[in-house]
Amino acid sequence: VVTRPRVLLTRRWPAEVETRLSARYQVTLNEADVAMSTSEIRRAMLEYDAVCPTVSDRLDVSAFPDRPRARILGNFGVGVNHIDLAAAQAADIAVTNTPGVLTDATADLTIGLILMLTRRLAEGERELRQGRWQGWRPTHMMGMALSGRTLGILGMGRIGRAVAQRAQAAFGMKIAYFSRTPLRETELEGLSALACDSVEALIDASDIISLHCPGGGANRHLIDAGRLRRMGPSRYLINTARGDIIDQAALTDALQRRAIGGAGLDVFENEPDIPATLLNAPNAVLLPHLGSATRETRAAMGMMVADSLDAFFDGTELVNRVA
Ligand code: 8YV
């Protein structure tokens, strides 16, 4: 008999994906659905042919044992900064991710955060629910109009462009961007956007700065105390990318001193631990990493991982390979 490859899912996945994977593989589910430790992952690397992690797992170099059984890591998500890709490469383990399928969901949520922040939606809801609303008045809880304002996109990849399209088409915003790799005209897909040649120039040109670059590596603390100071009390910062792109302690301090206009955050430096000083910071909107959280998108992400595993074990070409 041919034994079926052993696959570990480190969290519970959408039911239809678990069902599909179980038809072909010996699947082990993390029934408790709690995050696994790096040492548990290291043990799993010795027992399973495929390990499928998420952003809640830390696969640093210590997660890679000598002579692992695992041959592929099918990451549930597009961001792979929680995986030491060099260690995977050295251990000859393939790594795949899920680009594209979560672009719209993440761009939608980014727009949601922009509206929550500039129109003070969370603040207003808290006031009403807590019985503090004094009734309508002309100067009550005024926010900032988006039309004619400039949205600065840091990282003009798939998600950055989808956010820019929405902001320009739906709200009449101007777009500025900074991108490591210059974009070709065709990649802008009809968007009229100002290319900035530095993060500083992007900050200067923008009313709202939204982060859409990968985390980790050189992007760690790209938004540091100096750049927050440059933003000043009138600009807003949005992060639906990765927590470590911002120096979170410096941001918290800037928010507490009202030294920047505000921040809308879906991602954090040490999820799910959020320091109390950030939890109670004025003019911050905080969400629990919901960027890709629609039923449709999470199912599509899982199916994409399943496609990658199938291709790997069929010996066909591995699209979405990152290592
Ligand atoms: C996921 C994400 O929720 O894809 C990413 O990089 O941050 C989100 O879509 C998360 O990564 C799940 O692993």
UniProtKB/TrEMBL annotation:
<feature type="domain" description="D-isomer specific 2-hydroxyacid dehydrogenase catalytic">
    <location>
        <begin position="8"/>
        <end position="322"/>
    </location>
</feature>
<dbReference type="InterPro" id="IPR029753">
    <property type="entry name" value="D-isomer_DH_CS"/>
</dbReference>
<dbReference type="InterPro" id="IPR006139">
    <property type="entry name" value="D-isomer_2_OHA_DH_cat_dom"/>
</dbReference>
<dbReference type="Pfam" id="PF02826">
    <property type="entry name" value="2-Hacid_dh_C"/>
</dbReference>
<dbReference type="InterPro" id="IPR006140">
    <property type="entry name" value="D-isomer_DH_NAD-bd"/>
</dbReference>
<protein>
    <submittedName>
        <fullName>Lactate dehydrogenase-like 2-hydroxyacid dehydrogenase</fullName>
    </submittedName>
</protein>
<keyword id="KW-0560">Oxidoreductase</keyword>
<dbReference type="GO" id="GO:0030267">
    <property type="term" value="F:glyoxylate reductase (NADPH) activity"/>
</dbReference>
<dbReference type="GO" id="GO:0051287">
    <property type="term" value="F:NAD binding"/>
</dbReference>
<dbReference type="GO" id="GO:0005829">
    <property type="term" value="C:cytosol"/>
</dbReference>
<dbReference type="Pfam" id="PF00389">
    <property type="entry name" value="2-Hacid_dh"/>
</dbReference>
<dbReference type="InterPro" id="IPR036291">
    <property type="entry name" value="NAD(P)-bd_dom_sf"/>
</dbReference>
<dbReference type="GO" id="GO:0016618">
    <property type="term" value="F:hydroxypyruvate reductase [NAD(P)H] activity"/>
</dbReference>
<comment type="similarity">
    <text>Belongs to the D-isomer specific 2-hydroxyacid dehydrogenase family.</text>
</comment>
<dbReference type="InterPro" id="IPR050223">
    <property type="entry name" value="D-isomer_2-hydroxyacid_DH"/>
</dbReference>
<keyword id="KW-0520">NAD</keyword>
<feature type="domain" description="D-isomer specific 2-hydroxyacid dehydrogenase NAD-binding">
    <location>
        <begin position="111"/>
        <end position="291"/>
    </location>
</feature>
